[in-house]
Specification:
The chain is of the alpha+beta class. Among the domains are: 299 residues, Beta-galactosidase, Chain A, domain 5; 102 residues, Immunoglobulin-like. 19% of the residues lie in helices and 31% in strands. The strands form seven sheets. Strands 5, 6, 7, 8, 11, 12, 14, 15, 19 and 20 form a ten-stranded antiparallel beta sheet that branches. An eight-stranded parallel β-barrel has the order 21-22-23-26-27-28-29-30, surrounded by five helices. Strands 4, 9, 10, 13, 16, 17 and 18 form a seven-stranded antiparallel beta sheet that branches. A hairpin with a 5-residue loop joins β32 and β33. α4 runs parallel beside α5, α9 packs parallel to α10 and α10 packs parallel to α11. The chain is globular. The structure holds alpha-D-galactopyranose. The site of alpha-D-galactopyranose has 11 residues, from loops.
Length: 717
């Protein structure tokens, strides 16, 4: 049968599967053998016309043993009868129109064995982002084993000087560290592990500059993000080209990281891989950032139009050492400063085992009577009386051995048959147990029911999985926990979001351990990193803003790094602004700086959170990394805020701050501040075209200084 179908014939339009992702896209087609081929991909990929017999085109999604046996394959299945190879042929193509694009499903089946593999490609042309994932199901005599199950596997051409940009990699407090490196022949894998806070190990996002180094405004760049709250993998297999000047073939794979642990899939059960969101810009990385921001707002974020609150958190002010009077004192200070919300962090709970340190109390979500004799209500009442909202920290997925919960349910934790290892003195509750999921949802529902004054929660998760396994899974399916646990956790988060639609949720996992577009669907924002040293933070926020809008990036002023308060404040103001300071011990001068920062946040938070980001001076690339500057422009271009930071001793000559994207004909009134003086300094008016061509002079001569400009278009022309 296969041989009969293999006769060459010219492709017709009806054969072509075109997906337009908004200015770029892909064309696939089934060849004469029914194999899915990549005819075109990239800026004009959706318009590609085949000129060769389709069998000469690369496979769109090679399977192990399906053709190219000599490269890592995105899909590797051991079938129920022991067959190691998979050979897929296209069965049908379904196009499902959406409000905002099209969802194309290419349904394939194995030529020999009862396995169905669907490629889902969902275009979102208004942002220019493509979502892609794979769904698998089989009807074989027994389970099949999945050893690799990526979501995308395009074949790309990489110039000899092509570059990869990856993020993080140093563990806690090192999220989003920016590394650019050449794409050399061989296989490179960027993988995260640990299940619960994998993105402390490695970000699920990456950039590829295929045609050679790219900049903010120039070059061909692919940006991708694996929307997965578990272990992820980005694989880059570059094949050496005999001619050193010729482009090299690059097979890109991205999806969940199986890490050698086979997923056992039973007949009739649908396996869905993570969504990979990706885009392809021909005008540099700024456009990649813009598209990801638009897509995140349109397709990921809860309540994207709602301005995020100005938060005062107490963690770094008090750690576990507080009582009712101290917190009420901080609430009053927060209100006096003009905050929207006071967030009470870790340490408020534990009755039999008070949470006075990180070794007790997790799991027992009743207020500690020693610290809070009247419970949480006096605090919510104090916040209400002061005119601000109240938020609370929870870590529902975890338990300390020293807790009533662990005493009652020692069997609820994730472990194997060995003595389970503690990590931050705690264990991870097994979300595959229905009673654990009920407990976790109930922790939140019960807390919010008991204290109606709470309208914001910080949801933390402070350990990875170290002895994976679940008593709910049979012996031969223990490794399924890596994937099933993500879905189970998302079910809990979805239930919480559904039951409490008006409660804003911050996502945190020892800082930025869950900085992914998948988990973020259930939240309003995330804690970008525990590292709040403003010099490091500028660089982290620069990298994070490549994929996430500033509304998502919680950024609090702290004492980390012992930097000047006006500098730390200016850095936090370019994210979702807040404080994590002991407001009760500020000097008068420091209070004045905080007040100026709050006033500035009030004037600019709509721009920062919802405007268009324009990144002007990079702190992570090039010879001079001592400076950074970013701008946020209102959608109608009538207002702009520009942040400039001198991070370190200046190296190189100062740049001019040229501002593209303003209305060239309008005149902008400009005022600047560095938060050390009350008055904003008026600066000469300038037209949009002057600001774009000549720009503004770099004003900062010394390290750890910042300047913020507010621009407003004068009425008329
Ligand atoms: C994690 C978070 C911190 C803080 C502590 C509390 O480390 O990232 O912001 O909430 O937990 O224990």
């Amino acid at each position: 049968m296969e041989a009969a179908r293999s006769k060459a014939r010219p492709a017709t339009d009806a054969d072509l599967i075109r997906v337009d992702a908004g200015g770029w896209g892909l064309t696939w087609a089934a060849d004469g053998n029914g194999r899915l081929r990549q005819i075109g991909l990239g800026p004009v990929g959706h318009l590609a016309e085949p000129t060769l017999d389709l069998r000469w085109y690369p496979e769109a999604f090679p399977t192990w043993g399906g053709g190219d046996q000599f490269r890592p394959a995105p899909l590797r299945v051991t079938h129920a009868d022991g067959t190691l190879t998979t050979r897929l042929i296209v069965d049908d193509v379904v196009r499902i129109p959406q409000d905002d694009g099209e969802h194309v499903v290419v349904r394939c089946r194995d030529a020999l064995l009862a396995l169905v593999v669907e490629h889902h490609v969902r275009a979102h042309p208004s942002s220019g982002v493509l979502e892609q994932w794979v769904e698998l199901e089989h009807d074989q005599a027994g389970p099949v084993l999945l050893s690799d199950y990526d979501s995308i596997a395009p074949l790309l051409l990489a110039a000899p000087n092509a570059e990869l940009c990856q993020f993080g990699g140093g563990g806690w407090a090192d999220e989003w560290a920016w590394t650019t490196e050449p794409l050399t022949p061989g296989t490179k894998v960027l993988a995260s592990l640990g299940g619960v806070q994998p993105h402390l190990q490695r970000s699920p996002c990456a950039l590829l500059s295929l045609a050679g180094p790219s900049t903010e405004h120039d070059g061909e760049v692919i940006g991708l993000s694996i929307a997965w709250g578990g272990n992820t993998r980005i694989g880059l297999d570059v094949r050496h080209a005999p001619d050193p000047a010729a482009p090299r073939e690059l097979r890109l794979r991205a999806g969940a990281n199986a890490d050698g642990a086979e997923y056992v899939l039973d007949p009739g059960v649908r396996f869905v891989t993570p969504t990979v969101a990706w885009t392809w810009s021909t005008v540099g990385r700024g456009e990649v950032a813009h598209r990801f921001h638009e897509w995140t707002r349109a397709r990921v974020l809860r309540d994207p139009q709602r301005l995020r609150p100005l938060v005062v958190n107490n963690w770094e002010a008090t750690f576990f050492d507080f009582d009712e009077a101290r917190i009420i004192g901080l609430i009053d200070r927060a209100a006096d400063l003009g905050a929207d919300l006071f967030l009470l962090d870790d340490g408020w709970f534990g009755t039999t085992h008070p949470r006075d340190a990180d070794d007790a109390g997790l799991g027992d979500w009743d207020p500690d009577p020693a610290k809070l004799p009247g419970g949480v209500s006096p605090l919510t009442a104090a916040a209400a009386a002061a005119g601000i909202r109240f938020g609370l920290w929870v870590e529902p997925e975890m338990v300390n051995p020293r807790s009533d919960l662990f005493t009652a349910h020692p069997d609820w934790i994730v472990r194997d048959r060995r003595e389970p290892g503690e990590y931050r003195n705690q264990h991870y509750l097994d979300p595959l147990r229905p009673e654990v999921r009920d407990f976790e949802v109930d922790v939140v529902d019960r807390t919010l029911d008991a204290y109606p004054g709470i309208s914001y929660l910080k949801w933390d998760a402070n350990r990875p999985v170290t002895e994976p396994g679940s008593a709910t899974l049979p012996a031969d399916r223990q490794a399924n926990v890596w994937v099933d646990q993500v879905h189970a956790t998302w079910d809990v988060m979805a239930a919480v979001a559904e039951h409490n639609p008006d409660t804003e949720l911050m996502l945190c996992a020892s800082g930025g351990g869950r900085n992914d577009h998948g988990t973020l669907r259930h939240f309003h924002e995330f804690w970008t990193s525990d590292n709040t040293d403003p010099v490091t933070r500028v660089r982290m926020q620069w990298a994070c803003s490549q994929f996430f809008p500033a509304a998502v990036m919680a950024a609090h002023v702290t004492r980390w790094g012992a930097q000047p308060l006006e500098f730390s404040s200016a850095v936090a103001l370019s994210g979702r602004f807040g404080f994590d300071l002991d407001l009760a011990s500020l000097t008068d001068d420091e209070v004045a700086i905080c007040r100026r920062a709050v006033a500035l946040a009030r004037r600019t938070q709509d721009l920062v959170q919802q405007g268009r980001l324009v990144r002007l001076v990079s702190p992570v690339e090039g010879a001079d990394r001592s400076r950074a500057a970013t701008a946020y422009v209102a959608p109608d271009r009538s207002r702009v805020v520009v942040f400039a930071y001198q991070l370190e001793q200046p190296t190189g000559s100062p740049p001019r701050l040229q501002l593209p994207g303003l209305d060239p004909d309008r005149t902008y009134q400009i005022a600047s501040t560095d938060l050390t003086a009350d008055e904003r300094q008026p600066e000469p008016d300038a037209t949009g075209s002057q600001l774009s061509a000549e720009g503004m002079a770099w004003p900062l001569p010394s390290p750890r200084t910042a300047r913020i400009w507010e621009l407003e278009a004068l009425p008329g022309r």
